[in-house]
Amino acid sequence: MPSSALGISVDGVGKRHGRVWVLRHVSLSVAPGDTLAILGANGSGKSSLLRLMCGFDRPSEGTVTWRTGTQALDAMQLPLNIAYCAPDQSLLADLTVTEHIRLHQKLRPALPGSDVHAVAALALLQEKGHVRVRDLSSGMRQRLALALAFSTDCTALFLDEPTSHLDRAGKTWYAQLVSDWQKGRSLVVASNHDPGEYPGAQAVWEFPAS
Question: Is the model's pTM score more than 0.85?
């Protein structure tokens, strides 16, 4: 895993579904190790932009480029460099919390010190290891998804409305998670204008009001 944080450049990007343009003419950049907030109302295209920046989708026009240190990356190299968390991200409902963390760590390397028990504790689920994911509350599932993302050894984190389903205590927990676990990595957050989701952001890019 490269030690340098991920730098991202978006140049004149647009995305079209059929004849409908979801977004157009977007240009922005993320300096390695910085936090960027992408702001917009529901349906503005912020989740689509986030997915383009993750390399999950290809732009219909324009380019997205990625770099760690002096090394340019292509979209095929991105999965091992990033972690992603979104409200509609599917966790495996039939697995227990412990089983889910263990499986995740078989697929993705964890940061040093982030063993199964440490990640469960990070998600405040140390007493729920035997509980199946489907039986967790929505807030517990969101904490688990975020803890898995932040404990992954990667160069950038991409979060879509990360405090969805979190109560007041959960939002306080999230702020501490960012403070303690960003660890110099680049962070891109799509948010519906909730400053608590992008604390300390060095840059903000906002979709124009429709």
Answer: yes
**Percent composition of the chain: helix, strand, coil (DSSP 3-state, to 5):** 30, 30, 40
In 3D, which of 70, 40, 36, 71 has the Cα closest to residue 53?
36
* Orientation angle between helical segments 168-181 and 138-150, nearest 10 degrees: 0
Provide the 8-state DSSP code for 36.
E
Under DSSP, the state recorded for 4 is: S
Q: Enter the tokens of residue 30.
A: 């993320």
Q: What is the pLDDT of residues 133-147, one digit of tens each?
A: 999 999 999 999 999
The whole-angstrom separation of Cα 129 and Cα 208 is 44
Domains (range + CATH), the chain: 6-206 (3.40.50.300)
Quote the tokens at residue 192. Answer: 């519906």
